[in-house]
Write a structure and sequence with these properties.
The complex is a heterodimer.
Chain A lengths: L4 H8 L4 E8 L2 H17 L4 H21 L15 E9 L2 E11 L3 H13 L2 H14 L10 H10 L4 E6 L4 E10 L2
Antiparallel strand pairs in A: 1-2, 2-3, 3-5, 4-5
Helix pairs in contact in A: 2-3, 3-6, 5-6
Chain B lengths: L3 E3 L7 E5 L4 E8 L4 H15 L7 E10 L1 H19 L4 E8 L3 H13 L4 E6 L2
Parallel strand pairs in B: 3-4, 4-5, 5-6
Antiparallel strand pairs in B: 1-2, 2-3
Classes of the chains: A alpha+beta, B alpha/beta.
């Protein structure tokens, strides 16, 4: 069965939602989200350690969406704007969950999946080494991070990256990523 | 040599590079989508400063947040500082972190293990 975006988005929006967005991921949007979420976190009684982790993960998650979106053909544009992405932030008990979603070309799945599976297989110490290794040895891509974002998220949260590739059609999949930040 | 003096913004840090007193400061947030553009003038400035570096260069890094795109650029800044230090003009990097911010402390330690310049970890107690 092919991926039903609306069902996915509705399900994501169940529970205690702090912030929810679907649409173009632009620099202006990123600024807006960061301001809004930072203000909400300030208002909450949350410990500054957790607030900072949530904010950091949010920055990386948004920048991944901004830089790594695969373009959709024109015929999709009635349904999904340019640079389409999803961001939902929820609070579940004393844990925060940041979910992102974006379209990806079928042929990009393998690389991304291998990358995440590798990150998920690493221990805390190994993640630190991986981070330093990329930082010091890999050329930075024109886009910026050069693959550090997901490693950084895994390191800061101490949790596994929970992801799925939903088949949309022959050419596209929808990549959903759930990141948990716990106390 | 002209100093660099950038006012901070919600996404870029306050920067003060002063060749007259050898004090190099980066403070605030560094979370732009494209960091290379922001950091290039800083790296270029240090390249020139190296020719006439002060006998002691004090570097103050006091960041609240930085993204992974900035982390490579910060390393580039540190590599320039390392070259100055190697050229017998000592450099000391003071890395500030808030008392409960273990992630920021760890980030400083990552750099310390890569760059051959003395680091001082400075805890900010509220």
């Amino acid at each position: 069965m092919s991926f039903n975006f609306q069902e996915y988005f509705d399900e994501l929006n169940g529970g205690n939602v702090l912030f929810s967005y679907k649409g173009s991921i632009t620099t202006g949007l990123i600024n807006n989200v960061l301001d809004t979420v930072e203000a909400k976190l300030q208002d909450s009684d949350e410990h500054s350690k957790i607030r900072k982790k949530v904010y950091n993960v949010l920055v990386e998650g948004l920048q991944n969406l901004y830089h790594h979106n695969d373009d959709l053909p024109n015929s999709y544009k009635e349904k999904f704007e340019d640079g389409f992405g999803v961001l939902v932030i929820k609070k579940l008990g004393d844990c925060y969950k940041i979910s992102t979603g974006n379209f990806i070309f079928s042929e990009h799945i393998k690389g991304l999946k291998n990358r995440i599976d590798k990150i998920n297989s690493l221990s805390k110490e190994e993640l630190k080494e991986e981070y330093k290794n990329i930082l010091n040895n890999q050329k930075m891509s024109a886009k910026g991070g050069g693959g550090l974002g997901l490693v950084d998220i895994a390191r800061k949260t101490g949790n596994k990256l929970d992801y799925m590739f939903h088949n949309y059609n022959e050419k596209y999949y929808f990549f959903s990523l759930d990141i948990s930040i716990s106390n | 040599m002209e100093p660099i003096s950038f006012e901070g913004t919600p996404k870029t840090p306050t920067v003060n590079f002063n060749a007259d007193n050898g004090i190099i400061e980066i403070k605030g947030r560094s979370i732009p989508e494209n960091s290379i553009e922001f950091y290039k003038p800083l790296v270029d400035w240090l390249e020139k400063y190296k020719e006439n570096a002060q006998p002691m260069t004090k570097v103050i890094i006091q960041l609240e947040y930085f993204n992974t795109s900035s982390s490579k650029c910060i390393l580039d800044v540190f590599k320039k500082l390392e070259a100055i230090h190697k050229a017998k003009n000592p450099v000391e990097i003071h890395w500030y972190y808030e008392e409960d911010d273990e992630d920021m402390l760890e980030a400083g330690e990552d750099y310390e293990s890569i760059i051959r310049v003395p680091f001082k970890m400075v805890e900010i107690v509220e």
